[in-house]
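Q: Sequence in, structure out?
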Amino acid sequence: MLEPSNNNELPAIPAKRYFTIGEVSELCGVKPHVLRYWEQEFGELTPVKRRGNRRYYQRHDVLMIRQIRYLLYEQGYTIGGAKAHLSSTDAKEDSQLTKQLIHQMIGELEDILELLK
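A: Exactly. Output:
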């Protein structure tokens, strides 16, 4: 799971429904060709494909990519180990992901509140 300290290094996820592969690349600190490779390796990662095979990622995809990035780059997992870790996700890890999402949303709302003041 993403640690709060590592989450601070990555930019906040904007409040959008869909993200292009370039946007996701910047949000997650991973090059587009790596994202395309991870799609083949991780079945959980399924962006919507539209005309011209353009990929459109949703918020849950971006969170999944950040989690994969954390497991591979920060924790030192192999692709196989990361797959096994993700497939054995239990309720505790799901609640941690939910807490992370809520924490990030609170931060974004506080930023909006500061802009409105």
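The longest strand covers residues 54-57.
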